[in-house]
Amino acid sequence: MTTTEATATAGAPPGVGPGAGRVPAPRRRRGPAASQWAAAGFATPLLVYLILFYAYPLVRNIDLSVHDYTIRAFVQGNAEFVGFEKYAEVFSSATFPTALWNTAVFTVVSIVFQYATGLALAVFFRSGFRLSGLLRAMFLVPWLLPLIVSASTWAWMLNSDNGIVNSVLAAFGVGQINWLTSPGTALLSVTIANIWLGIPFNLVILYSGLQNIPGEVYEAASLDGAGPWKQFWSITFPLLRPVSAITILLGLIYTLKVVDVIWIMTTGGPGDASTTLAIWSYREAFGTGQPDFSPAAAVGNLLILIALVFGFLHLQLQRRQEDS
Amino acid sequence: MHHPRRKPTTLAAVAALALVGVLGACSSGAAAGESGGDASTYTWWDPYPQHDDASDWAGRVQACGEEAGVTIERTAYDTTALTNQALLAAQEGTSPDVILLDNPAVSTLSDTGMLTTVDELGLDTSAIDENLLAAGVVGGETYGIPIGANTLSLYYNADILTDAGVDPASVTDWDSLTAALKAVTGNGDKGITFAGIGTEEGSFQFLPWFWGAGADLRDLDSPEAVAALELWTGWLEEGYAPNSVINNSQNTTWEEFLTGDFGFAVNGTWQVDSAAGADFETGVVQLPGRDGGVAQAPTGGEFILAPVQEDTERYDVTRQIVECMTTPEGFVETANTFAYYVPPTADGQAALVEEKPELEPWVEAVRNAKGRTSDDLGADYPVISEALWTAVQNALSGAATAQEALETAQADAETGTS
Questions:
Q1: What CA–CA distance (Å, rounded) separates B224 from B219?
Q2: What is the pLDDT of residues A153-165, one digit of tens each?
């Protein structure tokens, strides 16, 4: 059904094309200047918007990272140019390997579980049983709650002494686990909270992706004797690949820059135990009484680079998919 | 024929108008941000978002404006956000006329040259207690006036202490406090709660023990400092304090104390009213030093500051507003409005104690308190403080021993301040 719709819309442009082609002709005769001006007029707001809100902050961030912006220099605007010195400082800092490792673990574990759970739920809800709409809506709750609320709630639940998680575990004879206050479990705790937060996003995107797989394919498969497991691996998963790719890529970029959940639950602590690159950048800039904008910007740029690498990787994959 | 010709031009005009609108919005936004705007409106920033426009505090700010013949436009920020906003505004040249700012941030802002000195403004600070004014003194110049001060003390739950047979008056040094905690926990109650969070609050709460051991902020890994940190880690190991103190803010600490489960809690002057309203009887003792005596606690509280303005004509009115807030009556009024500020002058303190005798121990504590940026630390303090709270976090969580954690902290502080 969806495919027929798709071909209908795809077929539309050629029909409209000739009609539309007739209009510009008199315009061009009257004077190309006017239409070019109009084109420029249309493009200008967009260009201004892009420059103002995308290019400028980016340039400013790079500018911050290659100057030594002490607080005094920041206010007086006479920061000394230091080239890549701040980057060298960041790389040689004791926090760097910890933060990089934590970022990798936090991102990969979050994405794997968010995606797997989101996909399982999407397939589950596809069968459209009674109340499935309501249940699906309930899975969106993490998305609707303000982050400060959900992160604080997680922090309370995981509290060492009074948290509900520990009291349930205690009922099964498990001793007190210092979820947020022990260096061994802090990262795990914030990752669990982040997985919970990310499931709705994966569910929604993957569920809508599933809607685009025509039902006939499944019918044909079941006629050929493919069971649900076989159907999933041979039809759902391969046909969902473009949607999966974009879901994972977006999830990756979102997860790389997560600050709020971690900051509210552990402020990156204890020590550096749950400090990711994003947390580190935030802490340098705003987390202490002494804003250090230059290293913060350097770490921020590093994150942008990492996200960019994955962005290009995605484009590459997409191109290869289209070619084949 | 008319129609297709007119269409693009009209659209272009619309687009151009939209563009003008966008740019116009930007420029007018910048103009509004220009300090104060006109001569009859003065801008005022403070860190009290809990007091809205209808509050007593907002009314008091307005009254000081009216007295000086101007309207005050007040904006409230969260404390950390306020420092950042102040720096950004200074960079843009759009500083407000008056800022109320947490005292350890004063030296940081003064370092940027964005603050006027009290001499430039023509203010008299001779009556202010020296230990409270110290946070605003950098390189011999004074950059603001404290509008009030608060500090930390040791609250106790009288019911729990009676049950455990502990006399609060017996808590005079670390050993007697630890003994009291042992008695309380031995009796089935919880011992003490404090805030060991990885922010400035964590350092604020650790300093009374740090200073009470005789340690110096320039020397974070001294044996005295290690002893102070070991006192805290010892409490956690023995179960005298809950493990969650590592992530506790001072508010959380207080909430825990209000459950009535804890014998002791370290908290500040600002909880006096709340303590009086608790379901159990509470009391306050001074934080003990290692070998007896009262430990020096850090001073808390805001300074009133006047950022540098391009239009120096404005200073005259600014001075009147600041003076209105810092008269002896003004100090007492501020103390009453907030219910937790001790006036920074002897006159003000006397007047407050006369009105509220129960605040006497707090006035005493404030007189003994010490500015965090004192000892000529100035703008180095935030760097040292970050190293210190990180060490506290690492030691309490067991990531490092107290000795190791403080050695790392000292190394970090030295690199950060050199």
A1: 10
A2: 999 999 888 889 9
Residue B128, classed as helix, strand or coil, is: strand
- Contact (CB<8Å) A269/B393: yes
- B 10-69 near A (Cβ less than 8 A): 11-13, 15-16, 18-19, 22-23, 26
Identity (one letter) of the amino acid at A127? S
Report CB contact under 8 Å: B386, A160: no
Question: pTM, whole model, 2 decimals?
Answer: 0.79
Report the chain A residue with the minimal C-alpha distance to residue B79: A289
Q: Which of B23, B91, B104 sits opposite A74 (nearest CB)?
A: B91
- What ipTM was reported for this prediction? 0.76
Instruction: Flag whether residue A256 sits within 8 Å of chain B, measured between CB atoms.
Output: no
Closest CB to A75: pick one of B113, B242, B246. Answer: B113
Question: Is residue B406 within 8 Å of B243, Cβ to Cβ?
Answer: no
Of the candidate ranges B29-43, B219-233, B337-351, the one whose mean pLDDT is the lowest: B29-43
Predicted local confidence at residue B37, as pLDDT:
54
Asked if A178 and B382 come within 8 Å (Cβ–Cβ), the reply is no
Question: Which domains does chain A show, CATH number per domain?
Answer: 29-83 (no CATH), 84-323 (1.10.3720.10)
Return the pLDDT at B13.
Answer: 46
Task: Rounding to the nearest 10 degrees, give the CA dihedral for residues B264, B266, B267, B272.
Answer: 30
Which residues touch B259 (CB under 8 Å, ≥6 apart)?
Answer: none
Rg (Cα) of chain B, in Å, rounded? 25
CB contact under 8 A, B5 and A30: yes
Euclidean distance between CA atoms B1 and A203, whole angstroms: 53
Is residue B61 over pLDDT 70?
A: yes
A34 close to B (CB below 8 A): yes
% of residues, chain B, pLDDT over 90: 47
Alpha helices in A127-185 (DSSP H): 132-138, 141-144, 147-157, 164-171
A276 touching B, CB under 8 A? no
Domains and CATH numbers, chain B: 41-146+300-368 (3.40.190.10), 152-298+376-417 (3.40.190.10)
Q: What is the mean pLDDT of residues A188-194?
A: 95
Asked whether residue A128 carries a pLDDT value surpassing 80, the answer given is no
Residue with structure tokens 């937060």? A197
Tell me the nearest-neighbour CA distance from B131 into chain A, angstroms.
21
Residue B34: the pLDDT is 43
Which residue reads 């920041």 in tokens?
Answer: A74
Ramachandran angles phi, psi of B321, nearest 5°: -65, -45
In the 3-class helix/strand/coil scheme, how is A173-184 assigned residue by residue?
Answer: CCCCCCCCCCCC
